[in-house]
């Protein structure tokens, strides 16, 4: 992967956060993704969220698997810890990192291929264990690195750029996570910066596994009229239960609308995206009603965005496994290695 360093230009009067850092201090090198890729808009939203929360970059660990989405961590928080794992295995690395140092703020960035195909099992166990992390899925419905084949998130009946029709029912990460008992589930749109920054901040601060599915149109392979992951379709079927936005090739397209409203956004190829935000009367704590609402809106072809479900009462991984309050890196050697007698006593209990 090639890196292009951004020129550093400090202008007078730039705002600093509560710890004295500029927003530029949370950025990384220049992106090598396609011009207008929704993933780059997500990167900008992540940068803004961490800056507004005044989280020191060195207190963050950013993780990814394989895919276009998994390049994202390279373009943000250059002063943080990072690990690019094997395809679909990001949650395992996140589990180990959190077990070793619970004081780190963990963000895992994945894609619909990375999490819903080869990594589907790992995705499920991150939810089940309620691992304390923001699990962000950049969802474009295709395998962008291998020339645009359908991913598991592609809707049945949608067409590929070359005309092939998808015959398989898709996996929806939002409804899947809710049905598995996730403690935080949200959906955003790469073009709706205002809503996305808010959702990212909420996910970072949530004490558990915060699943954030972000519709992020692929301008190269999945932004044509037959796609249900295109800018046009999402703008036409966008139903924010909270809020949403758009990014076209080379030029970013943005949208602004109130809670409860739906808008149709025209894409560069002439297609439309239907977005809908949840309104103030939406109850994100009632699991059964949330599932019914999502299914109703899905039947109408609407993409619902916002904070969809939350249960802050669920214990996170450290509470479930009764781990030490002190990070492993700070534990004394005698605590980590109590000796052969303690090991023998433990083994005796297992006979």
Q: Which helices and strands occur, and which strands form pairs?
A:
Blueprint lengths: L37 H16 L6 E5 L16 E4 L5 H11 L4 E7 H5 L3 H10 L3 E7 L2 E2 L5 E2 L22 H7 L4 E6 L3 H13 L3 E7 L15 H6 L1 E3 L21 E5 L5 E6 L9 H13 L3 E8 L6 H4 L12 H4 L3 H10 L2
Parallel strand pairs: 1-2, 1-3, 3-4, 4-8, 7-8, 9-12, 11-12
Antiparallel strand pairs: 5-6, 7-12, 10-11
Please give a structural write-up:
By secondary structure, the chain is α/β, with parallel strands linked by helices. It has one domain (23-228, 283-295, 307-349): Thiamin diphosphate (ThDP)-binding fold, Pyr/PP domains (Rossmann fold, 3-Layer(aba) Sandwich), CATH 3.40.50. Helix content is 28%, strand content 18%. It contains 11 helices and 12 strands. Strands 1, 2, 3, 4, 7, 8, 9, 10, 11 and 12 form a 10-stranded mixed β-sheet that branches. A two-stranded antiparallel sheet has the order 5-6. β7 (184-189), α6 and β8 form a beta-alpha-beta unit. α1 (38-53) packs across α6 and α2 (90-100) packs parallel to α4 (120-129). The longest helix is centred in the N-terminal third of the chain and has 16 residues, at 38-53. The radius of gyration is 21 Å and the shape is globular. Mean pLDDT is 82; it is low at 242-250.
**What order do the SSEs take from the amino end to the carboxyl end, as H and E?**
HEEHEHHEEEHEHEHEEEHEHHH
Q: What does the overall shape look like?
A: globular
Superfamily (CATH H level) name: Thiamin diphosphate (ThDP)-binding fold, Pyr/PP domains
Oligomer: single chain
The main sheet comes to:
10 strands, mixed
